[in-house]
Amino acid sequence: MFLDVDGPLLPFGEDPGREPRSVVSDSHFSRLRLEVGRRLAQLPCQLVWATTWEDEANTEIAPQLGLPRLPVVRWPEPSAEHEREDRWFGLCWKTRTLVDWADGHPFAWVDDEITDADRTWVATHHPGPALLRHVEPFRGLSNEDFAALDHWLRAT
Length: 156
What we know:
The chain is of the alpha/beta class. The chain has a single domain (2-14, 25-155), classed as 3-Layer(aba) Sandwich (Rossmann fold). It is 38% helix and 9% strand. It has helices at residues 34-42, 56-65, 80-89, 95-102, 116-125, 143-155; strands spanning 2-3, 48-49, 107-111, 130-134. Strands 2-1-3-4 form a four-stranded parallel β-sheet, sandwiched between helices. β1, α1 and β2 (48-49) form a beta-alpha-beta unit.
């Protein structure tokens, strides 16, 4: 399972349906919850960092969540052609790399940048099953997200 940090694990921003908070007193890392790490570790899959944090996810995020070191996706420099196509199709900049990394194997991807354009592109360009789970960045991973991931992973 490809795992983004900002948004799914470190919620940010305001719920568009709520009044804005006047003061945010908690630090960035205080939003990391051991319970989330425990639940991630219980999912029947290999966890892989798919974040701009890259190796820092293992030194800064994993210990806060009680997770071991995880594999890290390396982000290549995109070609000009791919950048144009991605803009045209409205793809997340991570989509192509994650499909390449999966190499035809089933995968789940948890991110706050996933759109229907990414789902369509993956369905067309990836021969195996894939679950692209959009997480609201102001909320982070929820019980509903964990239930959907667990169900899909066990059924795949």
